[in-house]
Amino acid sequence: DGPISVEAISMDAExxxxxxxxxxxVNKNIVVKIPMTEEGLxxxxxxxxxxxxxxxxxxxxxxxxxxxxxxxxxxxSPFVGRLDDISHIGMDIVGQIxxxxxxxxxSTEVIVASIRNPLHVVEAALLGADISTIPxxxxxxxxxxxxxxxxxxKFLSDWKKVxxxx
Length: 166
What we know:
By secondary structure, the protein is α/β, with parallel strands linked by helices. It is built from 8 helices and 6 strands, in the order βαβαβαβααβαβαα. The longest helix has 16 residues.
């Protein structure tokens, strides 16, 4: 029932627009992923006027996020893990984007992408990101906590000590 992200692969505005139109006909929930390029922004502006939902991907700066919002992107995806990989603090960028969007009442939603660990999930939530794309291995880490495991072991140990009626 929710949004379905589908990647457009053209690199020119004309091709991206054509793909977005075709992809959006497949299902009303399609969100067309368009790269953060000059041509991509042209395409976003055009297809937004036609009611086609877009996600501007590969966003790495607040200025790119502003341009995407001004073009009418439904969503933007800052890639935090990739920023961390090159010694930038990806979550700082997310915080700046969320603040800017709030300051100017942009309707574009922030999808935090390239999440690498549970701390990214917590930080994204604290910063007010709208959505996080979380890989399965990180979801498994979110469930686990050593104190939960210790608590279960203690409970089971205590349960074994309770006298049983025969």
